[in-house]
Design brief:
The complex is a heterodimer of chains A (115) and B (111).
Chain A: E1 5-7, E2 10-13, E3 19-24, E4 31-38, E5 42-50, E6 53-57, E7 64-68, E8 74-78, E9 87-94, E10 105-106, E11 110-114
Parallel strand pairs in A: 2-11
Antiparallel strand pairs in A: 1-3, 3-8, 4-5, 4-9, 5-6, 7-8, 9-10, 9-11
Chain B: E1 3-6, E2 11-14, E3 19-26, E4 32-38, E5 45-51, E6 56-59, E7 62-67, E8 72-77, E9 86-93, E10 100-101, E11 105-110
Parallel strand pairs in B: 2-11
Antiparallel strand pairs in B: 1-3, 3-8, 4-5, 4-9, 6-7, 7-8, 9-10, 9-11
The chains are: A mainly beta (115), B mainly beta (111).
């Protein structure tokens, strides 16, 4: 079956702009989480969605937001981009929030560069 | 504050040897500990999960131990191969689905 699909793969934006990233989970997976990966901070949890509801949120400013659609696809949005937002943004899917024992399936990520 | 530490240095070993990676944590009571592999420019790939009441888990050439008293997990790759070269991440789950990741250890297996 198809894996987790993230689009676009690469993105270059200017400071102050906003950006929307997309994630399509594995078919049948209803839980989607987002992570930011930078060389300095490593992988950091942004938020988690299940059944179109945000269940968990990491310690990021309000400029970072997300949503999930009825087909489980998810988007995250970053407004008023800053240089420090340059990172690899990763999406992970799982069947349900309680099935952590199967691990998470990550997409290849979206590489965002803010100039 | 919660902290997860992995071998800070890169680990270079010879092909055929056993690689041992360390994950130490503080101020945390994880229900599960997971290990992932990440290749450059790719997302992490799930390898193994061990629960707080398990001491050891194996999968093919991989073995994970979990000592909640020492607050440490060890990840072993036996008969290592150059294809095992990657960054290995440990991640803890306390409650809910949120994963807290360590900084990762870069493993290089040389011929």
């Amino acid at each position: 079956k198809a894996g987790v699909t993230q689009t676009p793969r690469y993105l270059i934006k200017t400071r102050g702009q906003q950006v929307t990233l997309s994630c399509s989970p594995i078919s049948g997976h209803r839980s989607v989480s987002w992570y930011q990966q930078t060389p300095g901070q490593g992988l950091q949890f942004l938020f988690e969605y299940f059944s179109e509801t945000q269940r968990n949120k990491g310690n990021f400013p309000g400029r970072f937001s997300g949503r999930q659609f009825s087909n489980s696809r998810s988007e995250m949005n970053v407004s008023t981009l800053e240089l420090g937002d340059s990172a690899l943004y990763l999406c992970a899917s799982s069947q349900n929030p309680g099935q952590v024992q199967y691990g998470y399936t990550f997409g290849s990520g979206t590489r965002l560069t803010v100039v | 504050s919660q902290k997860i530490e992995q071998n800070s240095e890169a680990l270079n070993i010879q092909e055929g040897k056993t690689a041992t990676l360390t994950c130490n944590y503080t101020n945390y009571s994880p229900a599960y500990l997971q290990w992932y592999r990440q290749d450059p420019g790719r997302g992490p790939v799930f390898l193994l999960l061990i629960r707080e009441n398990e001491k050891e888990k194996r999968k093919e050439r991989l073995k994970v131990t979990f000592d909640t008293t020492l607050k440490q997990s060890l990840f072993h790759i036996t008969a290592s191969q150059p294809a095992d070269s990657a960054t290995y991440l440990c991640a803890l789950t306390g409650g809910g689905n949120k994963l807290t990741f360590g900084t990762g250890t870069q493993l290089k297996v040389e011929l």
